[in-house]
Write a structure and sequence with these properties.
With 685 residues, this protein is an alpha+beta fold. Helix content is 49%, strand content 15%. The chain has 25 helices and 19 strands. The strands form 7 sheets. The protein has a 5-stranded antiparallel beta sheet with strand order 2-3-1-11-12, with helices on one face. The chain has a 3-stranded antiparallel beta sheet with strand order 5-7-6, with helices on one face. A 3-stranded antiparallel beta sheet has the order 17-19-18, with helices on both faces. Strand 2 and strand 3 form a beta hairpin. The longest helix is centred in the middle third of the chain and has 24 residues.
Length: 685
């Protein structure tokens, strides 16, 4: 069985581009080989900063393409169509066969069986696969037209110990590999994967990304065990670092203990985000003055270690200077400085935003029966840390630094927490704000952002969302749902629009209020899908929901999803289906308002009374609604509908009685549809 090795050697490719290219190449080659009917034993992809390597093993030298009949155009079409069909399948007129099927007479051609060399398939597949890599950023270099993530310097392609000849752009395949160490460049020939592996290993190059990662993790865990530290490392950073080194060596470095007086987030950000180092924590989860560095070579004389220590201590020294200076600056006095920071063109400054947040948070606090003064103070100072040198140096710590500043200046804990928490959630799996003052300001902030960009018509499109408004909308909805808040968003949005207008912001979108509510409803679909709510339930609830209480909508979905496969759900659906099918087949417009005077049967009266009982429960305030009890009531009505259909003839000879009974069934459907639109559920129509 054969072996094929491909290496794409280039300038250093950044980690994210490298991972993406690795996955693209593997997927494309895998799919293409399957399409070409070339069966293989294994296909592996490896990468390092400069090498993207494919190893294909255990495949035949030739593949046999069996003879087959290929259906062509219908008999009687113009000659051009027939000729194109013949040309596509390398056939002539004499090869045409006429056959009849249930759709008429068609032309067919029968291909001959043939053998294709695997080498020819590999050439075609590899070239197309290389070209199909989707680079987020690519380069063109020298005088060539070739585009690649970074300048591509060589293509190694070996099949059965020899070069598999093909070209890609200006490059021709070779059996040479390049080995660069500092300024020394060596070129060596290889015949197979074993040679390739040994040659790179002898030169301390680990081309297998998984092997590099395992080596790093093993070093980390040994260190943690010996020093009795917490076994923790950031997996995202590990993946990044793994893909920027070829010969990983883990170094233990320390910094002066005096910097442990800084908030731990500053130290973590310095090490992790700025330098790609790994902070170390003790068993009690406290940060230590040690960190780990993954270097790309051995550090025999501690040159790398000492250099990294100097860099970290210099950064922490600057951070300490900013911290000591900024924490003493009164946050209330910093509010005025926010006038110099623009929020967005046409939407005023960050100062203007905080004034809107203060009023909006106050309105929310009143509605939620919270401490209005605290909510307004928290909203007023929520952005004050943006004026600090520390946040200017560490923008990823906005909010967190404000929390520490507020705490050191004597603000109450829930006010201080709101400064950092109001940015939550920061991602799909991030926590939402849970404390009352925190979620009040968080909701206000997200509403204000949505309203602002909608009123100036900077709305997301199907392909672009430059201001992350979808994320803001989902964050808003998640905060409301997680805290079980029965909020009427229309009033808040309308009030927020007025606040913008009071600040002389030009409202160029008269439909912004409704557009935001529709936008939120669409985002609600994403949240419900993430909760594994069935698609037909989502459609049934969203399509019939015209309110602005999204926690209310969420409750309906989760309950319906819980009961739909149980007896209660089946009973409700069964009852609705019988009534719906009769109403749908009836002619004329039905309002769902039967006249009780025209009832002739006890079953009509009982069904009418039960429906009115349910409708009364549906009309109470959202906070008082018990949706589980309501859904069970819809299920229990089956007893009444069964008796109705068993004892009442809807199509009575008397036209008035017949229409009245149809109106009763229409009332029945309308009542159910007030919960969710049952007609959208699977199996109804």
């Amino acid at each position: 069985m054969s072996e094929f090795i491909l290496e794409l050697y280039s300038e250093e490719i950044p980690p994210n581009l490298q991972i993406n290219a690795r996955n693209n190449l593997l997927e494309k080659i895998q799919t293409s080989l399957k399409d070409e009917n070339l069966k293989f034993g294994s296909l592996k992809v490896f990468s390092s900063p400069t090498r993207l390597t494919i190893l294909l093993k255990d495949f035949s030298e030739k593949i046999k393409i069996p003879a087959k009949e290929i259906k062509g155009p219908k008999v009687g079409v113009i000659d051009d169509i027939v000729n194109n069909f013949l040309k596509a399948h390398q056939s002539s007129r004499k090869d045409l066969i006429e056959k009849k099927n249930d759709k008429g007479n068609f032309y067919y051609v029968k291909t001959k069986s043939k053998e294709i060399l695997s080498s020819e398939i590999l050439k075609r597949v590899v070239v197309n696969s290389i070209a199909s890599i989707k680079w987020k950023k690519s380069m063109r270099w020298s005088e060539t037209d070739l585009l690649w993530g970074r300048p591509l310097r060589s293509i190694l392609a070996i099949y059965k110990t020899k070069v598999l000849p093909f070209s890609y752009g200006h490059l021709k395949t070779t059996d040479n590999i390049f080995i660069e160490k500092d300024i020394d460049v060596k070129v060596r020939k290889v015949k197979n994967f074993k040679d390739y592996q040994k040659l790179l290993s002898d030169n301390n190059i680990i081309f297998d990304h998984e092997e590099r990662e395992k080596k790093i993790i093993k070093k980390f865990e040994n260190f943690y065990k010996v020093k009795n530290f917490k076994n923790y490392y950031d997996t995202k950073l590990l993946r990044e670092v793994t893909n920027i080194v070829e010969d990983p060596h883990v170094l233990q470095v320390d910094f002066d203990k005096k910097y442990l007086q800084l908030p731990k987030e500053i130290i973590i950000s310095t090490l992790q985000n700025h330098q790609r180092y790994f902070p170390i924590f003790d068993k009690k989860d406290k940060i230590t003055n040690f960190f780990l560095v993954v270097a790309n070579k051995k550090d025999t004389n501690n040159i790398i270690k000492d250099g990294n220590k100097r860099v970290v201590e210099a950064r922490l020294s600057d951070a300490k200077f900013f911290w000591d200076k900024d924490k003493s600056k009164n946050l209330i006095k910093q509010i005025a400085k926010l006038k110099d920071i623009k929020f967005y063109e046409g939407l005023g400054s960050i100062y203007d935003k905080t004034q809107r947040l203060r009023k909006l948070s106050g309105m929310l606090a009143d509605e939620l029966n919270l401490n209005k003064e605290k909510a307004e103070i928290a909203a007023s100072i929520s952005k004050s840390d943006l004026c600090s040198d520390l946040v200017n140096e560490y923008p990823d710590l906005q909010g967190l630094m404000g929390k520490y500043f507020a705490s050191s200046q004597g603000f109450e804990e829930d006010v201080s927490n709101a400064i950092s928490d109001h940015y939550l959630p920061v991602g799909t799996n991030s926590f939402t704000a849970k404390k009352p003052i925190s979620y009040t300001v968080a909701i206000a902030d997200k509403i204000d952002t949505l309203v602002g960009f909608f009123i100036i018509n900077e709305k997301p499109t199907s392909s672009k969302d430059p201001f992350a408004l979808r994320r803001s909308a989902i964050g808003l909805l998640r905060t409301i749902i997680d805290n079980k808040l029965n909020l009427k968003l229309r009033n808040l949005i309308n009030y927020n629009i007025k606040l913008f207008e009071e600040q002389a912001v030009n409202n160029s979108n008269e439909n912004s209020e409704n557009e935001i509510l529709i936008f939120l409803k669409e985002r609600m679909k994403n949240i419900l899908k993430d909760k594994n709510i069935k698609n037909d339930i989502i459609e049934a609830s969203i399509s019939s929901y015209f309110s602005d209480n999204y926690f209310d909508l969420y409750k309906k979905n989760t309950l319906m999803n819980k009961y739909i496969s149980k007896e209660a759900g089946k009973n409700a659906i069964s009852s609705y289906k019988r009534a719906y099918n009769i109403v749908e087949s009836a002619k004329g417009n039905l309002s769902g308002r039967p006249d009780a005077v025209l009832f002739r049967k006890e079953e009509e009266k009982h069904l009418f009374e039960k429906l009115n009982e349910i409708r009364k429960s549906l009309s109470v305030n959202d906070q008082e609604k018990d949706y589980e009890k309501l859904l069970l009531s819809l299920s229990e009505i089956k007893i009444f509908t069964d008796k109705f259909f068993d004892n009442v003839i809807v199509n009575d000879d008397n036209n008035d009685i017949k229409n009245n009974r149809l109106e009763l069934l229409k009332m029945f459907c309308n009542t159910f549809n007030n919960f969710i639109n049952f007609s959208k559920l699977e199996g109804i129509s």
